[in-house]
């Protein structure tokens, strides 16, 4: 068995891959591959419907929320979110690379305010949020910082309407939907394969007439067209749906949160115990999805990577902009993969510490 700690595209349950592969050959008993069917035919319409329902059910969202599966990645979401919600003033919290990119794209539409940032601390913590954020169209946050390994532990402090890039921790824990105008997430971290981007929109917060929007980037139009204004990415949506079914069958986001905490606690405990390793970020803001750490002794990096390779542990090199190591613990990663990694870390200390 390979232990896949990749940050994205990332691990999905084996059963999901199996079922998805069957549908490529023949979908149900139709004599057709899913990939050659009309996206307006009954089979795909059913798949889209089930995927949208599962998103709402798993996150406990009411009918104010509409679910879209669009293309373009979360990186297009940076622009789409501002385009559809930014009138005069928006606040952004800068917690790393992805937040900075969101800020850059939003600035194309109107000046925005960075109301809190941890840039001066190399993004090693989540900054505290000013309490006087009146009059903003929205506050934009990145719930989990995939590259640096920090995460908002909850959203209680956030009072304003929020837009949230939840690409790397959506479905990893319960959320209070009422706090959000829009949640968006690239599929390929914790939901499905690359190729579709999830938008969860509170339609009451949308202003159809905000500006003359290009059709493909117009969330109101996409809602009206039930996420099929053009040909949607049928296969990534199907695989995402299968994965959401798997999540539901395994106790939903509440159970996922427990499993994710167990995995993260085990790995952070070893990082803190082991004299060779140091965690990158402040303890209180540690991410349960992306655990970042470094070796405190020079010259052992390749030895550690070799040991990992021998143990079939893949995808633990840190992001190229940060270095060190990163172990991503998304929903589908089993506890035994974390146990395998911890064993290697312990062995390295015993043999080289
Ligand atoms: C990966 C990631 C992105 C970029 O996603 P794409 O789908 O590749 O555009 C944006 N935000 C966060 C938090 C991410 O982890």
Report on the structure:
- The chain is of the alpha/beta class and 353 residues long.
- It has 2 domains: 14-249, Aspartate Aminotransferase, domain 2; 252-352, Alpha-Beta Complex (Aspartate Aminotransferase, domain 1).
- Helices cover 35% and strands 17% of the residues.
- It has helices at 14-25, 42-59, 73-85, 97-106, 219-224, 234-249, 252-273, 301-310, 335-352; strands at 3-4, 65-70, 90-94, 113-117, 138-142, 144-145, 150-151, 162-165, 180-186, 197-202, 277-279, 290-295, 313-314, 325-328.
- The strands form 4 sheets. The protein has a 7-stranded mixed β-sheet, sandwiched between helices.
- Helix 1 packs antiparallel against helix 6, helix 7 packs parallel to helix 9 and helix 8 (301-310) crosses helix 9 (335-352).
- The model has no long low-confidence stretch (mean pLDDT 96).
- Bound molecules: pyridoxal-5'-phosphate.
- The site of pyridoxal-5'-phosphate (PLP) has 12 residues, from helix 3.
**CATH-derived architecture of the largest domain:** 3-Layer(aba) Sandwich
Strand content: 15-25%
Please give the CATH class of the largest domain: Alpha Beta
The biggest beta sheet is recorded as: 7 strands, mixed
Would you give the CATH topology of the largest domain? Aspartate Aminotransferase, domain 2
Strand order of the largest sheet: 2-10-9-8-5-3-4
CATH homology superfamily name of the largest domain: Type I PLP-dependent aspartate aminotransferase-like (Major domain)
The SSE order reads: EHHEHEHEEEEEEEHHHEEHEEH
Unreliable spans = none
Shape: globular
| Number of E-type strands | 14
Number of domains: 2
Percent helix = 25-40%
Distance between the termini: 28 Å
Return the structural class.
alpha/beta
Listed once per kind, the bound small molecules are:
pyridoxal-5'-phosphate
- The number of distinct helices, counting runs of at least 4 residues, comes to 9
Compute the gyration radius: what is it? 21 Å
